[in-house]
Design the sequence.
């Protein structure tokens, strides 16, 4: 959808902001450009909507050189969100959002209706916020209006230049999550500039790590964190990249351990026998609908005729994760619930297995090896530790 071919930009004073850039962004892909201040990210972006012209090479939009487009028309097909949102102070939120539909000649009621839908989409109730003026909004709300406005004409491409840079970290994370949710529905082609590697990793399908005017690595977040292309990238992503990687590595079926599974209605005696046979100190307990109920420890009752049913001994375990959740989420849940394991469920809430600190660590290592060997994670052979036993309660 977007392609940079040997693009360079030298400003009049001789500054080379972008140096022989080659980059392609597929339709529906979100690419983050990340790098230190002054490395050429913004210049890269502004060459797409022709706020800057390259001094060499060309930028293609939908297969055509942007230089061939009328700049005004081009910009209507490319949404642009910047940090200093640039809302018109004397226009209401609704009118600000309707700016581009107006420019496109839509009738006023239609433009305002579209604006109201978009405000809703970005989490601002148009009935509450539509008639306010920008200075009556919080920073986070202004950023939302900026995103709504950029989406108003439903452009296929969005350029976002540090759109969440000016808000505090909590609001920022919320805006990021909302944007990810929106993007999952809209599948726009997005170029997203940030100087924050965490943000780049969370949002990007791929990340372009900029050095001075050049892209040092262009790859998936997991690959950038797991196998930095050179020392520059390694130092930019930081020594805690293993930890950062947790947030981009999903839980897969092959990561899960299979403790014994018993049901609430089972006789406890039989359940204890199962656990003994497996050498396990506890079992997962499911209810009559095969839904997760919790767990039962083996030491609780030695079994025997008078032990009754599992239901009498079972304990609730509320925490669970869907398959595909990040390892980071699994880890933080283990800490939050002070739990030695977390159940993982499929889309229909069926129990699939558990993740323990041991299997989580193993999954992380396997995903790093998988990238290094360029094979799926499930195919990575492990040479050191055996699969750890399910942790004790
Ligand atoms: N109009 C201009 N004239 C001359 N030099 C410029 C101009 N605009 C940008 N530059 C220089 O080009 C280089 C790249 O700037 P650019 O704004 O693209 O970087 P950036 O990575 O977006 O930085 P930041 O994260 O600080 O916004 C910088 O050295 C900057 O000073």
Sequence:
């Amino acid at each position: 959808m977007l392609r940079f071919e040997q693009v360079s930009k030298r400003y009049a004073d001789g500054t080379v902001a972008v140096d022989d850039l080659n980059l392609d962004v597929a339709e529906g892909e979100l690419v983050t450009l990340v790098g230190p201040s002054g490395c050429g990210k913004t210049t890269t972006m502004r060459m797409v909507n022709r706020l800057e012209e390259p001094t060499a090479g060309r930028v293609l939009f939908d297969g055509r050189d942007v230089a061939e487009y009328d700049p005004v028309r081009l910009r209507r097909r490319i949404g642009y969100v910047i940090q200093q949102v640039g809302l018109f102070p004397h226009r209401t939120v609704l009118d600000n959002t309707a700016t581009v539909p107006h420019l496109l000649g839509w009738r006023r009621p239609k433009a305002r209706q579209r604006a109201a839908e978009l405000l809703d989409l970005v989490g601002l109730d148009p009935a509450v916020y539509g008639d306010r003026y920008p200075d009556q909004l919080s920073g986070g709300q202004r950023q939302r209006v900026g995103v709504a406005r950029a989406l108003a004409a439903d452009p296929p491409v969005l350029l976002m230049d540090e759109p969440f840079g000016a808000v505090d970290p909590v609001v920022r994370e919320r805006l990021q999550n909302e944007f990810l949710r929106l993007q999952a529905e809209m599948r726009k082609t997005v170029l997203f500039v940030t100087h924050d590697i965490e943000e780049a990793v969370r949002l990007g399908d791929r990340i372009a790590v900029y050095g001075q005017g050049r892209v040092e690595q262009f790859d998936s977040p997991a690959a950038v964190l797991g196998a930095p292309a050179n020392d520059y990238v390694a130092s930019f992503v930081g020594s805690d990249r293993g930890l950062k990687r947790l947030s981009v590595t999903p839980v897969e079926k092959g990561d899960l351990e299979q403790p014994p599974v018993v049901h609430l209605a089972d006789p406890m005696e039989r359940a204890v026998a199962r656990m003994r046979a497996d050498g396990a100190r506890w079992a997962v307990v499911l209810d009559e609908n095969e839904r997760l109920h919790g767990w039962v420890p083996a030491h609780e009752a030695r079994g025997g005729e008078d032990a009754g049913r599992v239901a009498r001994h079972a304990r609730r375990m509320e925490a669970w994760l869907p398959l595909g959740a990040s390892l980071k989420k699994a880890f933080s849940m283990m800490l939050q619930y002070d739990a030695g394991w977390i159940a993982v469920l499929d889309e229909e809430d069926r129990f699939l297995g558990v993740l323990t600190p041991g299997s989580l660590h193993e999954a992380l290592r396997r995903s790093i090896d998988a990238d290094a060997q360029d094979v799926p994670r499930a195919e990575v052979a492990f040479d050191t530790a055996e699969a750890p036993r399910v942790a004790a309660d």
